[in-house]
Amino acid sequence: MYLFNLDIKDFFKSISKKQINEFFNFLGVPKSISKIFAKITTVKDHLVEGFNTSPTLANFVFRKIDITLNKIASKNSLIYTRYADDLTFSGNKPINIISEVEKILNASNFTINQDKIRYFKRGGPMYVTGLTVCDDKLSRVTKKYKNRIRMTLFNLNKKIENASNEEDLEFIKLEIGSLKGKINFINGIERFRANKYICELNKIEDNLETKEKEIFKQIYI
């Protein structure tokens, strides 16, 4: 078994409000309504991580690229899979298609994160979409991925403590939304671990609610 894994740099930021508008037009939504939908689902003219709508909209925009990459995989007797910005090609022979994949992504304004290109082969640990995959063991979320979750939880408490205005709170809410998605991902693999994170996140949301009330009183009362 061989794996080739790569990450798209700034995945959500690479998808513009114009592309979202065109997607809604494609669905048959009136142009005036499409513009409104595109406006409320983007920030600074692009998708953002943390909005519940971003993953679904990104998948629709990326669908043509998925089809093209899947054809390349089939041509080379490989299997193509994608989870958000994480692309993986797997097969029973060495994989050498990076230049072809990069050309397709660049043509659609996507860029490969050169620091996250990884090759794996049978006999060593394999990492796919944040999971450690072994032939004779169950899949597990990587230690690095879980460490990032713990660090984010810790930092959120600090950010809430230091928040001084409504804008600070909005950014914290975006980060919480993104974190929930990552914890849900872990929940499908390691439920016991995810439950611990959910309990911590619930406490953070309680702290955020208290902070919101404090800032509201300072501004409006």
TrEMBL record:
Name under which the protein is recorded: Reverse transcriptase domain-containing protein
GO molecular function, one term: metal ion binding
Taxonomic superkingdom: Bacteria
Nucleotide-binding as UniProt keyword: no
The Reverse transcriptase domain, residue ranges: 1-133
Keyword list, A-Z: Magnesium, Metal-binding, Nucleotidyltransferase, RNA-directed DNA polymerase, Transferase
CDD domains: RT_Bac_retron_II
Cited InterPro entries: Reverse_transcriptase_msDNA, RT_dom
Keyword tRNA processing: no
